[in-house]
Design brief:
Shape: globular
Mean pLDDT: 92
Number of helices: 12
Largest sheet: 8 strands, mixed
C-alpha cells in the first residue's frame, strides 16, 4: 500500500481531474491524504460533495505552505511508503503500480517518478523551460544507455515516493522555506549526504497541468531566488554552486527591467530568424529574476 499526499490550495478545478485520475488506477492498493493549506472552501467542500471509490482523508491546516502540509500528511498516512504529488499533477493509469513496484524491488530509500507538462497546455515558452533544464534537469536523469536507474540527489515533489523511515531520518521538510521552492531539493541533498539511495522510474508518470507565462515564471524565479538562500543556509557547502556572487554584486534594477521588456518584445515571435534571440532573452530575464529574488 502507498499513501499519496497532496497539499492543495485554491485549485479545486484541476484537483478534480487529479482525483478523477486516481479512480482509474490499475493498482487499487493506495490511500489519498489531501492536506488543505488554509483553503476551507476548496478541498474540504470537495470531500463533503463527492464520495471517492478509494480511501481519502482530508486534513486542514492554517495557511503555512506545502512543506508543512506534506509533513502533516505523513503524520496521517497509514502506509510505510508515502508518495508526494502536486495538486496540479495528473497521474497516468499505472502511476501507483509503478511506485509500488519500485519500492518492492528496491526496498529502501526514495523513488523519483517522471513528470512532464500536460500536452494540452504546452507552448514554445514552456517547451523552452523544459528543454533548457530550468524546469527539470532531464539530462541528469539520463546517461549514454538511456534512463538512469539511480538519481541520488533528486527529490521533486511533483512525483516522488519515499519510505517513512528515510523521510523521518532527514527530518521531513524544513519549515524555513518561505514558499514552494528548493524545499524538496533540500531533502534530496540530505538523502544523498546520508547515502540513502534515490531510484528513478520513468514509467511512474504524471502530467503537470500548470500553465506558465513569461510573467508568471519571472515571479516564480524571484521566489526561487529567495528560497535558494534558505537552502544555502541549511547546507552551506552548496553555496559555491548556487550563489553567483559576481553577478549579484553587478545586479542593476534598470538592466533587469530592460531584460524583461526585451523578452516580452520577442515573446510571441514565430519567425525563424528570431528563435535564437527569443530563447536568449528568455534566459537572461529569468536569470536576472532569480538574482533579484536573492537580493
Amino acid at each position: 500500500m502507498i499513501s499519496v499526499i497532496i497539499p492543495t490550495y485554491g485549485r479545486v478545478v484541476i484537483l478534480d481531474r487529479v482525483l478523477y485520475a486516481f479512480t482509474h488506477q490499475s493498482c487499487k492498493d493506495f490511500e489519498v491524504i489531501l492536506v488543505s493549506d488554509g483553503d476551507e472552501t476548496g478541498a474540504l467542500l470537495y470531500k463533503q460533495s463527492y464520495q471517492m471509490p478509494f480511501p481519502m482523508k482530508v486534513v486542514w491546516q492554517e495557511n503555512a505552505g506545502p512543506a508543512k502540509a506534506r509533513n502533516i500528511g505523513v503524520e496521517h498516512a497509514k502506509s510505510d511508503i508515502v508518495c508526494f504529488i502536486g495538486d496540479d499533477c495528473i497521474p497516468a493509469r499505472d502511476f501507483v503500480f509503478q511506485h509500488t513496484y519500485s519500492h518492492l524491488k528496491y526496498r529502501e530509500g526514495a523513488v523519483q517518478g517522471y513528470t512532464i507538462w500536460h500536452p494540452d497546455i504546452v507552448d514554445d515558452f514552456m517547451r523552452y523551460l523544459y528543454e533548457s533544464g530550468i524546469q527539470v534537469n532531464e539530462p541528469a536523469l539520463k546517461d549514454g544507455n538511456g534512463w538512469k536507474e539511480k538519481v541520488d540527489g533528486f527529490f521533486m515533489t511533483t512525483n516522488v515516493s519515499i519510505t517513512k523511515r528515510a523521510f523521518h531520518n532527514v527530518g521531513g521538510f524544513s519549515d524555513k522555506f518561505p514558499a514552494a521552492a528548493w524545499e524538496d531539493v533540500h531533502i534530496g541533498a540530505v538523502l544523498a549526504q546520508q547515502q540513502t539511495p534515490t531510484y528513478f522510474n520513468h514509467k511512474a508518470l504524471n502530467y503537470h497541468w500548470h500553465k506558465q507565462t513569461l510573467d508568471s515564471y519571472i515571479h516564480r524565479q524571484m521566489t526561487e531566488g529567495a528560497s535558494r538562500l534558505v537552502l544555502c543556509e541549511l547546507l552551506p557547502e552548496l553555496s559555491g554552486n548556487l550563489i553567483d556572487s559576481v553577478n549579484l554584486r553587478k545586479f542593476d534594477e534598470n538592466v533587469f527591467n530592460a531584460a524583461v521588456a526585451d523578452a516580452r518584445e520577442t515573446h510571441y515571435s514565430q519567425s525563424p530568424d528570431f528563435q535564437e534571440l527569443r530563447r536568449y532573452r528568455w534566459g537572461k530575464a529569468l536569470q536576472l529574476a532569480s538574482l533579484k529574488g536573492m537580493l
